[in-house]
Design a protein that fits this description.
transmembrane helix; mainly beta; six-stranded mixed beta sheet; Immunoglobulin-like; about 775 residues; Ig-like domain-containing protein; elongated; membrane; 5 domains; about 10% helix; five-stranded antiparallel beta sheet
Length: about 775
């Protein structure tokens, strides 16, 4: 390992051997991925992909535990592909975008989030290598020349000259190993000449549904076993509060006894939902459901006995005698059976008259559908409470009686059935899957190499209302993504599990491995960032190069940062976040075309496309395309002051046909730097006054946009006062003459033109002279 090798430098040979042996021993016996070496601190040993070998990766489910402590990349041992790929900021994991080793490194050294609550359905857990020849026909291959300035560090081609990458089934680049690269002179392109032997790195995944089921089922696995109970805990506290009950009476004056101990029921997560400001927000898909684990322990009362006496009398002659004899009163209890079942999962609120009861599917999954028709249950938007009810029944046999050598002996038997009920509730905000009250208008203002996008929103974009996730604008070969502020972080909800039995208790760490015994329970919690716009595909051959720049915005509302657990390091979340009514960006690109076809699509965090109809009947997503309207800014009606101050004139703003443009702001700058603004009247005119001989005026063009209105491009004006008549007098020195002349702006321009002409004349004379001499 590189870190270890660097640490060994300068040590004696014998000491290096000793540390190596200790390190190797700790790697063998370490029960987790953390090992310690004397003097060099913790090392997380992450396995590397081996060509052609299917490696599995422990702890990849750390991507769902962002509240775990992050590790310094210097403390991670990794020698595989992309070894320098350690993100400095939280990473948008997306859908199946990483290899298993990348996923483990990202989750170990930083935090990862998703932006789509429905599409993130897989975690990479295992390497998979496929022949290059087996890749789909639409696979693209990229050849990157190897040189010292490459930041890419994947496998090289067999001649060492190329990095070869191929797209996988999701359209993401994956390294190609053992590739022979040749040149095809006919097609004039590189190609892989050994497709059956070259290998493409893929990844096997496990779905998030499988992970949720695994976690819930593991904690419920022994829920009918009365001898033990597993209780998930976080920071020493029960994740789901436990309760005891099922009281039964006992014999011989003993107090009542609870046969059910530490029973609990929980709600791990909601389908298509996330935790936001102390409640779940569910938009769903549109089916709603939850994972509901539970467990319990049942015991019978301890056997009981006590000493007592009995009195017996007898008559002897005319006398009656009484004698007292010892006896034992006893009771024995046996737990015959105990069962625990979730009897109800109910989404309700006061005054709601619809169907509240969800139906069970499998052992731990409850879905809001009708049991017969399988139709989704309908819930109006609003605040609800989701409650899971657990009913635990215990069956206890009681035998009691009296034993004595002198007293009457007897015994009785009875069986009692006792029930304990416990509940767990979470608050839920129900919103609509498809954000029906949100309208988005996108205007494409068309220019050569300089387009502008003006986006306008109507409706509440907050997550519990009608959020959006992404707006994608395609202008022929230019694709621009506008990304919303919503981020969702997987949060581990327990760090240990306590197992209680009649013999005591044991604690186990919650883990993040595939098929682990005590998996960490998680849910998605909501963070907020800022709206961004960018070209997402700069590295693709068919993507026109470009960049974006925010011009201006109008804020609809400002959200405070959403509270996230400790160790989730997202600085954006601490800042207030703006939601907009308007957002305008410049799009500069190498594409000088105009009149391109423009398409727009959008989605929300629940996976719904935003292309339906709103309640008012308006289109939910509209796109408009129109060219810039050029403008002409002119100066007229100038009155020059003899003092050099308080000149006045009129600025006139028109389109190219001479039509006046009203209500536009023009910025005016005097030659001393003083700046002011004026606004054109109904005739496109604005009166101004200024000091000095030079005036600059500019109209910056329109920023915001309204349907049907022209979108005006800016124009600039440099106005120089005409020179006053000069009285030339003899000047004693050439320097004084030049100084006096340059003080007049017009003569300065003439001198500059004369100088340029003189330089050109000298160069031409030299060139002609050289031509003749040859």
């Amino acid at each position: 390992m590189k870190a270890t090798a660097n640490a060994f430098r300068g040590w004696s040979h014998g000491f290096r051997i000793l540390v190596t042996v200790l390190l190797a021993t700790s790697l063998v016996i370490a029960p987790v991925t953390v090992v310690y070496a004397a003097g060099i601190g913790p090392i997380y040993d992450i396995p590397s992909p081996e060509p052609g070998v299917d490696n599995t990766y422990d702890e990849t489910y750390r991507v769902l535990a962002n509240n775990d402590v992050d590790v310094d990349p210097a403390d991670v041992s990794y020698t595989g592909y992309f070894e320098n790929d350690y993100p400095a900021y939280p990473v948008d994991l997306g859908r199946a975008t990483l290899s298993p080793s990348q996923s483990l490194r990202y989750s170990t050294t930083s935090d990862v989030y998703i932006t789509d609550l429905s599409d993130y359905n897989a975690i990479p857990i295992q390497d998979e290598w496929k022949p290059y020849s087996s890749m789909p026909f639409y696979t693209e291959t990229q050849f990157i020349n190897v040189h010292e300035k490459n930041t890419y560090d994947g496998p090289k081609s067999n001649d060492g000259e190329w990095f070869v990458r191929a797209t996988n089934q999701y359209g993401e680049w994956r390294p190609v190993y053992n590739a022979d690269v040749k040149w095809d002179p006919d097609a004039e392109e590189l190609y892989v000449s050994n497709p059956d032997d070259a290998l493409v790195h893929q990844a096997k995944h496990e779905s998030i549904i499988s992970r949720n089921l695994h976690a819930a089922e593991q904690y419920t696995k022994y829920a009918q076993d009365s001898d033990r109970i597993a209780i998930p805990k976080m920071n020493g506290r029960e994740l789901y509060p436990t309760s005891s009950g099922a009281s039964m009476s006992r014999k011989w004056g003993q107090s009542d006894f609870n046969t059910v101990r530490e029973s609990w029921v929980g709600i791990n997560d909601l389908f298509g939902g996330a935790w936001y400001r102390d409640r779940y927000v569910s938009g769903s898909t549109p089916t709603r459901g939850a994972y509901v684990p539970y467990d319990h322990r049942a015991v019978a009362p301890a056997d009981f006995s006590r000493s007592a006496t009995c009195t017996r009398s007898h008559t002897h002659g005319n006398s009656t005698h009484s004698h007292t004899y010892p006896k034992t009163e006893w009771a024995e209890y046996d737990l015959l059976n105990s069962t625990a079942n979730v009897t109800s999962v109910r989404l309700d609120r006061p005054g709601f008259t619809g169907e509240s009861e969800w139906n069970r599917f499998g052992k731990v999954t409850w879905i809001a559908i009708e049991s017969i028709s399988s139709k989704n249950l309908e819930y109006p938007r609003g605040e609800y409470t989701l409650t899971a009810t657990l009913e635990v029944t215990s069956e206890v046999e009681t035998r009691w009686g009296v034993t004595s050598s002198k007293c009457s002996e007897w015994s009785r038997t009875s069986v009692s059935t006792n029930t304990h009920t416990t509940k767990y509730s979470v608050p839920v905000t129900i919103t609509d899957w498809d954000s029906p009250n949100l309208e988005i208008d996108v205007a494409h203002i068309d220019g050569a190499g300089h387009d502008r996008l003006a986006v306008r929103w109507k409706g509440n974009q907050d997550f519990p209302s009608d959020p959006w996730r992404r707006i994608s604008v395609n202008i022929d070969n230019k694709t621009i993504h506008l990304t919303s502020p919503w981020r969702f972080y997987g949060i581990s909800r327990n760090d240990e599990v306590e197992v209680l039995t009649g013999g005591g208790s044991t604690s186990h760490n919650a883990t993040h491995t595939h098929n682990d015994r005590w998996p960490a329970i998680y849910r998605y919690e909501t963070g907020v960032a800022n709206v961004t716009a960018a070209f997402p595909q700069k590295g693709e051959d068919n993507q026109v190069w470009g960049y974006t720049k925010t011009v201006d915005s109008q804020v609809s509302t400002t959200l405070p940062g959403a509270p996230l657990p400790a160790n989730v390091n997202d600085p954006d979340n601490d800042q207030p976040t703006d939601l907009y009514t308007h957002h305008v960006i410049d799009v500069r690109s190498s594409d000088l075309d105009t009149g391109e076809a423009v398409t727009v699509d959008a989605s929300n965090p629940f996976g719904a496309p935003l292309d339906g109809k709103t309640v008012s009947g308006e289109d939910q997503l509209e796109v408009y395309s129109q060219p810039y309207e050029s403008t002409v800014l002119q100066m007229t009606d100038v009155n020059v002051s003899s003092t050099g101050a308080d000149h006045d004139g009129v600025l006139v703003l028109t389109d190219t046909d001479g039509n006046s443009i009203k209500n536009k702001e023009i910025t005016v700058t005097q030659d001393d730097g003083t700046t002011s603004t004026v606004t054109t009247d109904n005739n496109g005119r604005a009166k101004i006054a200024w000091d000095g001989s030079v005036l600059r005026a500019r109209y910056d063009g329109d920023v915001f946009w309204s349907p049907g209105d022209p979108y005006y491009k800016g124009d600039r004006l440099l106005y120089i006062l005409p020179p006053s008549p000069l009285d030339f007098e003899a000047v004693g020195a050439v320097g004084e003459y030049i100084s006096a002349s340059i003080s007049n702006v017009l003569i300065f321009v003439e001198w500059l033109a004369l100088g340029i002409f003189a330089v050109w004349w000298v160069r031409m004379r030299r060139r002609t002279s050289k031509g003749k001499s040859g």
